[in-house]
Amino acid sequence: MRPIIIVVGARPNFMKMAPLYSELKKRKINTLLLHTGQHYDKNMSSVFFEELNMPKPDIYLGVGSDTHAKQTAKIMVDFEKICLEKKPQRVIVAGDVNSTIACALVATKLNIPVDHVEAGLRSFDMNMPEEINRILTDRISSLLFTPSEDANINLINEGTDPEKIKLTGNIMIDSLMNNLEKTNTTILDEIGVEKEKYALITLHRPSNVDEKTTLNEIIEGLKAISEDINLVFPLHPRTKNKIEEFGLETKWNENIKITGPLGYLDFLSLTKNARMVITDSGGIQEETTALGIPCLTLRDNTERPITVDQGTNKIIGNKQKRLIDEVKNILDNGKPSYEIPHFWDGKTALRIADILEKKLS
Ligand code: UD1
Questions:
Q1: How many Cβ atoms sit within 10 Å of the Cβ of residue 30?
Q2: Catalytic residue IDs
Q3: What average pLDDT is seen over the chain?
Q4: How much of the chain, in percent, has pLDDT values that exceed 70?
Q5: What pLDDT, on the 0 to 100 scale, is given for residue 88?
Q6: How far apart are the CA of 251 and the centre of ligand 1, in A?
Q7: Closest to 25 measured CA to CA, from 344, 265, 357
Q8: Model confidence pLDDT, tens digit, residues 70-125
Q9: CA–CA dist 289, 24 (Å, integer)
Q10: How many angstroms separate the CA atoms of 263 and 265, rounded?
Q11: Distance CA 278, CA 219 (A)
Q12: What is the CB < 6 Å shell around ligand 1?
C-alpha cells in the first residue's frame, strides 16, 4: 500500500494531527508523518510531540523561519522531492499556516489528492496570511473536512462541489478531551497564580504585534487591567522579538507574569483554570468555548464565528478602552452562558478516518 503523508509544520498543527495520526496507525494504514520545521524551538514543536504521544516525524524538512515567500518556497522544493520519492496516495494537511498551502500546492500539481482538515473557515480578511492560505488550500483540496456548519456554508457559497465537503467536527477538541485528565495545577504554582484569579494572555498576530503603536496600546491596556487581576502571558517568539525591538519590555509589573512559550498540557491547564483568556489566536477561541472559559479576542473578526454565536468568545478589537471595559464586565458579571457546538465531541478523528479508509486503495 502506498503511504499517505500527514503534514505538520507549526504549533497549531500538532494538536490537529495527533488524534488523526494515531487513529490511522490504529487502523494499520501506511501513514508517514512529515514535519516541515516551520516551527522548530523545543517549546514550539518537540514538546507537543512528546505530550501528544506522536512519534518523531518520519520526515523532517527543517525549513525554519524566513519571509513568507522564502519559507513557502523552501517547503515546496523539499516536499516535492519527498512526494516524488514516496509516491503517497494522498496528502493530508491541516489548518492555515504556510506549511499547509505549500504542501497542498505541491501535491496537487503532482496529481496527488490533498485533503484539508479544518476546511471552510473564513475571516473574510485578506490582510491575514492565514486567510489566503485557507482559501487557496480549500480550492485545491479533494476532501474538505469541516469543523462546523458555518464552514460548510462558506464553501458552498464559493461554489465548492458539495460532495467534497465532509462535516466531521473539530479535531482540536479530540486532543483537548484526550488530554484534559492529564493536566494538574503545578504550572499555576510555578508561576505563582491561583485558580480563577488570573487572566491568560496570548498575542502573536502580525496585525497586533508587528507595529509599535498597536503593540504599545495593547500592552498599556494589559498594564491597566493588571491592577484588577493577575495576568499570565506566555510570550510567542515573534512577540518577544517585537517587544525587544520596540523597547517595550520595561512596561511589565509584578502582576504580569511573563513566561516563554508553554507546552500543550501546561497551557491547557492554565486555560482551564483561568478567570478569562485574552487572545488573538484562532485555536484558543475554540478551546475556551469547549471549556466554558470567557474569551476576549483582540481582533476585528474571527474565522470561527460559532465560538461567538454559541460559545464564550467575544470579538473586541485591539483598543485599550474596550479591553478594559470588557475585562471589567467579566470580573463583575462572571461567565456567559454557552453551548458546545455540534460534533465537538472528541470523535472527529474517527469520522475522518472512516471517510479516508474508504478512499484508500
Ligand atoms: C505561524 C502561523 C500562524 C499561527 C502561528 C502559531 C503562518 C503564516 N502563520 O505564525 O497562523 O497562528 O504560527 O504560532 O504560517 N520563531 C521562533 N521559533 C520557532 C518558530 C518561530 O523563534 O520555533 C520566531 C521566528 O523569529 C519567526 C517568528 O517567530 O520569524 C514567526 O514565525 P512564523 O512561523 O513565521 O510565524 P508565526 O508568527 O509563528
A1: 13
A2: 204
A3: 97
A4: 100
A5: 98
A6: 24
A7: 357
A8: 999 999 999 999 999 999 999 999 999 999 999 999 999 999 999 999 999 999 99
A9: 27
A10: 6
A11: 12
A12: 10-12, 38-41, 44-45, 65, 96-98, 129-130, 204, 236-238, 241
